[in-house]
Amino acid sequence: MSAVSTPDTRQSTDVGALYEELRVGASLAVRFHAALASHVGINITDVNCLGALDKNGAMSPGELAVHSGLSRGGAITAVVDRLEKAGFVRRRRDDEDRRKVLVELIRDGAYARLTQTFNALDQAYTEVIESYTEEQRGLLLEFHRKVDARLLERITALQENA
What we know:
This protein has helices spanning 7-40, 44-56, 61-68, 74-85, 110-130, 134-160, and strands at residues 89-93, 101-105. The protein is mainly alpha-helical. A two-stranded antiparallel ribbon has the order 1-2. Residues 1-5 have low confidence and may be disordered.
């Protein structure tokens, strides 16, 4: 006798398969960023900080630490030192509060070379995204926003209990 697929077992299988794909995607993203970092001679934490600066603009080392999940002080200082030495960032005084130091992304030079590596992946992602209808893209966007919000909740909980 063959197993009959009921709506409940199909749904449970779909949920499990989708969850597994999320896990695979997360693992591949970490591997990609590690390979990218190695390719340009920095580490994955540095790439994470560059991403935060690219998305959010110049920020204080403390703000950068929060965005990247690092501790304030020695850990973030070491990252900023490495990125500055490699030509990815510069420190500058805040125009409004000269006592405050900001870390600013240098978009040409080293960072421009790094972003070239992202371009092929960006193009591949765009092709996949564009293969869906507008309605499907809306559902995918909603799904990812909800998943990202849950992930951020878990990160926050782990950091608060550390």
